[in-house]
From TrEMBL:
Lineage of origin: Eukaryota, Metazoa, Chordata, Craniata, Vertebrata
GO molecular function: acetate-CoA ligase activity; AMP binding; ATP binding; propionate-CoA ligase activity
Protein's name in the database: Acetyl-coenzyme A synthetase
Keywords: ATP-binding, Ligase, Lipid metabolism, Nucleotide-binding
Assigned protein family: Belongs to the ATP-dependent AMP-binding enzyme family.
Annotated ranges, domain AMP-dependent synthetase/ligase: 110-497
Domain AMP-binding enzyme C-terminal: 558-637
One of the Pfam families matching this protein, by short name: AMP-binding_C
Span of the signal peptide: none
Length: 680
């Protein structure tokens, strides 16, 4: 692990010079001549479009025409839409394809069953290596229908919210699709979250139904998911029933609300009438951490989200009919929603459900899976790539990876070293690496190197090119749009797109304040970005108080709230720092209550356990520094900027400390920081 403050700060502009060398040496990927209509059949009707750049320009300048054409072509409608869009970003109004009716599960399953019922839809890569299970589209449809009928029989109706707390497995996918089929809203919660974090999301979503498994299995370890749900629902009065599926052979205690899921599914018919859903009906809620400490339940709707997932999956990864798509993200995150479930299935693809870890039973797990399942596109996180680099090239080269055609990275910007290793070792220097930028809020990939013209460069560590229909802008602190290249600013979107979130559940005002009001007329992403001389985008990191740990976003306020619940703690401040495996680590500064005497090791253990229990293990601080006081302004605001500079050992960047209530606090914190590092 790279200790905070022990390395020189790196600046974006300095690193770009090196990347230009890589672009010319590694990244010019040539293909056969590019034909717009062959690439995208709808382009035949787009006047003046002959290349990728022209198609991108058309998709932005003729947005309604572009999205209408692809929506008609790519989705099956029960009733056609009347209007393409009715959007006003300044008011947070985002509506697409109104008047249209469709069913997401029909688009993902039924229409493929009609043409290729025995095509493999899912390959479940179970935790136990070499025990994969395949499900055809026909089998997945039957499972989905049984779940849909089961939910209906137990009183779940259109608009009801079903919380899914399950590992990545076929029944979890069927449960998501069953909700979509009957018009219920699904709320998938990552199965690593604690009982308290789960309960908070169940309460906010007002779920009446929870679906879980007896136990989870990951990395050879059993996790007690049913027990976690039992604890959570004690504080969730809206929950009427809990469906419990079986993942292991170990029995669990069943209570009055519990229903044995597979047993009841056998009683159901394999045909389930799909509900006709309005384009703007809610498909799912997905909670993501915010800077206020309270998770945000982002709202995604049926038509726009599904279309955008389909289009990005197809064109960013160059997905072709018959390919096997290997996204290793958990279904509890937006990546699992868009590129493990909805994107591949709406395109009639074969998608891999990865239940294990990259190092179980050994560091060759990913590449053994690539060989066995003949994966063509592999989509993973930079955190995992950096971890696997440590184990050496031999674990990769041991396996045949000749089926790979595209490599993707997601969750955080990928550093140049990891990009080069991924390209050179995993991809044998022949597979393009697509470093994708997007968020839970965007619904799908917004900036990525692909699609591009055949001879276009790919620059390591840069997301590069906006996707079709996406118009990014950089804005300075005064809200002025920066039009020149070779500049940095706040990354905003200048116009809406179908896949974007519509609101925050039960709190549209927070949606407005977070995304629409910081830069009126634009959608604010919360990220900063650099635009190179060539007009390519590189994401430089969060501009708000959100940390990205191993691709998982967590608000600093959320961690602080938990730390402050400890009876020994008076107050705390949490920041993120650069971590060479996880991307960012968690560093907590803690002030104890007066008169408290405790061994530092005992306090660190206690606080780490509290955070693990109330949020998740990945949110547990890597460093906990006990301080007498925190640097504050005279109005009482904690100066986290100063704390970041301390951890980075950037003394010159501390700036003028005279505005602090007690500047001497900074010197005390600096000395404590050095002592803490010397112990590691």
């Amino acid at each position: 692990m790279r200790l905070p403050g022990r390395c020189t700060l790196k600046y974006v502009a300095a690193s770009l010079g090196r990347r230009g060398v890589f672009a010319s040496r590694l990244d010019v990927l040539r293909r056969s001549s590019w034909n717009a209509a062959e690439f995208m059949p709808e382009a035949a009707g787009f006047e003046g479009v002959s290349g990728r750049d022209e198609l991108q320009e058309y998709s932005v300048s003729n947005s309604e025409s572009f999205w209408a054409a692809v929506a008609h072509q790519r989705l099956s409608w029960i009733r056609p839409f009347r209007t393409v869009q009715d959007c006003d970003l300044s008011r947070g109004r985002i509506r697409w394809f109104e008047g249209g009716k469709l069913n997401v599960s029909v688009n993902c399953l039924d229409r493929h069953v009609h043409t290729c019922p025995d095509r493999v839809a899912l390959i479940w890569e179970r935790d136990e290596k070499g025990s994969e299970v395949r499900y055809t589209y026909r089998e997945l449809l039957e499972m989905t229908c049984r779940v849909g009928n089961l939910l209906r029989r137990h009183g779940v109706t259109k608009g009801d919210c079903v919380t899914i707390y399950m590992p990545t497995c076929p029944l979890a996918v069927a449960s998501m699709l069953a909700c979509a089929r009957i018009g219920a809203v699904h709320n998938v919660v990552f199965a690593g979250f604690s009982a308290e974090a789960l309960a908070e999301r169940i309460r906010d979503a007002e779920s009446s139904t929870v679906i879980t498994v007896n136990q989870g299995l990951r990395g050879g370890k059993v996790t007690e998911l049913k027990k976690t749900v039992d604890t959570a629902v004690q504080s969730c009065p809206t929950v009427r029933q809990v469906f419990v599926a079986t993942r292991t052979d170990n029995p669990v205690t069943m209570g009055a609300k519990d229903v044995a899921m597979e047993e009841e599914m056998l009683k159901e018919d394999v045909v389930c009438e799909p509900a006709a859903m309005d384009s703007e009906d809610i498909l799912f809620l997905l909670y993501t951490s915010g800077s206020t400490g309270k998770p945000k339940g982002l709202v995604h709707t049926h038509a726009g989200y599904l279309l955008y997932a389909a289009l990005t999956h197809k064109y960013v990864f160059s997905y072709q009919d018959g390919d096997v798509f290997g996204c290793v993200a958990d279904i509890g995150w937006i990546t699992g929603h868009s590129y493990t479930v909805y994107g591949p299935l709406v395109n009639g693809g074969t998608t891999v459900l990865f239940e294990s870890t990259p190092v179980y039973p050994d560091p060759g797990r990913y590449w053994d899976m690539v060989e066995r399942l003949k994966i063509n596109q592999f989509y993973g996180a930079p955190t995992a790539i950096r971890l696997l680099i440590k184990y050496g090239d031999q674990w990769v080269k041991k396996y045949d990876r000749s089926t790979l055609k595209t490599l993707g990275s997601v969750g955080e910007p990928i550093n140049t070293e990891a990009w080069e290793w991924y390209h050179r070792v995993v991809g044998d220097g022949r597979c393009p690496v697509v470093d994708t930028w997007w968020q839970t809020e965007t619904g799908g990939i917004c900036i990525a190197p692909k699609p591009s013209d055949p001879d276009a460069a790919i620059v390591p560590g840069m997301a590069m090119r906006p996707f079709f229909g996406i118009k990014p802008v950089l804005v300075d602190a005064e809200g002025k749009v920066l039009t020149s290249n070779n500049t940095s600013g706040a990354l905003c979107m200048a116009q809406p797109w179908p896949g974007m979130a519509r609101s925050i559940h039960n709190n549209h005002q927070r949606f407005l304040e977070t995304y629409c009001q910081p830069y009126p007329g634009f959608f604010f992403t919360g990220d900063g970005a650099f635009r190179s001389e060539d007009g390519y985008y590189q994401i430089t990191g969060r501009l708000d108080d959100v940390i990205n740990v191993s691709g998982h976003r967590i608000g600093t306020a959320e961690i602080e709230d938990v730390v402050n619940q400890c009876s020994l703690v008076a107050e705390s401040a949490v920041i993120g720092y650069s971590h060479n495996i996880k991307g960012q680590g968690v560093y907590a500064f803690v002030v104890l209550k007066k008169g408290v005497k405790v061994q530092e090791a005992d306090l660190v253990k206690q606080l780490s356990n509290i955070v693990s229990e109330k949020i998740a293990k990945y949110a547990s601080p890597d460093f906990i520094q006990i301080v007498k006081r925190l640097p504050k302004t005279r109005s009482g605001k904690i100066m986290r900027r100063v704390l970041r500079k301390v951890v980075e050992c950037d003394l010159e960047g501390l700036g003028d400390l005279s505005t602090l209530d007690d500047p001497a606090a900074v010197q005390e914190i600096l000395e404590g920081h050095e002592k803490l590092l010397s112990k590691r």
